[in-house]
Amino acid sequence: MHPSEFIVCEHCDVVYQRADLIRKQSACCVRCGAELYRAPAMHLQTMLALVVTSLFLFVIANAYPLISMQMNGIDHASTLIDSVAAAWHSGVGPIAVMTALAVVLFPLTQIVLLGYLLTSLIMLHRDPPGFVDLMHALRLMRPWSMVEVYLIGALVAVVKMAGMASVRAEPGLYALGALTFLLALINAFDLRLLWDARDRLVE
Ligand SMILES: [Zn+2]
């Protein structure tokens, strides 16, 4: 019998069998009325939809220019990778590497790993090979995925340069904004739900 099938009331020690809750429901103790547990704010299916959407946004944010500038009648458009390369060539190697990791590599790895784990668990109903190691990798990567820092930097640049040249926000910047929002939701997701889903499969 799986241990999480039972739940004990923290206040009066009555033991209950867990029941599946739908969104926003919570289970309360019949004897003392204390809350036992709540339905998760986000389900695995919702999570998978967010992950797939964020993969599309990631591609757009990287493939299209973020900012374009008109100087002396010539258009300069720069993508995220352009700005990493520019930082590298102007001698701030560490910043270039950190940007490449925190804004490109870690978020992409997070998205791909979550996509793989969720697809395997809820679409194919099988235990994904490497589950434990990949879950640890996800947990370690979480604090280092910092698209928002870059987004703020890019927005500050747009505002500052607006006086000097004609600066325009390009599709990549909008995609990066939306991606930042989705990654915040994804990072707030309770990873225990994946462990629970896997426990149910391998039982
Ligand atoms: Zn109780």
UniProtKB/TrEMBL annotation:
The keyword Transmembrane helix applies. The chain crosses the membrane at residues 47-67, 95-124, 145-167, 173-195. Keywords: Membrane, Transmembrane, Transmembrane helix. Coiled coil: none annotated. This is Paraquat-inducible protein A. It comes from Solimonas marina.
